[in-house]
Write the structure tokens for this entry.
Amino acid sequence: MEDKTFSTPVMVSLGAMGLRFVASAWEALECLRNQWPQQEGVEYKRAVRICRDALEGWMSAAKARQAFVKAAQRAGVFVDNSSLK
């Protein structure tokens, strides 16, 4: 397995754990499995699968990031950090 770095990190707000920048498929998968507020639903399952596929070389980092962002939006934890640049 080889980690795939995202072109731009994704910021999520994980309640008591606070803000977290997720910068790669490995970090996204770890976040989804260990810190996610709701581990169910189509977007969640899709993000887990695509991040795992990215680590195996079957998907790009861009696809993994896109799936992670959609799951974060669905879970209500996505923070748009484009205004921070």
Notes: The chain has one domain: 5-80. The CA atoms of residues 11 and 84 lie 11 Å apart. The longest helix spans residues 42-56. The mean pLDDT is 93.
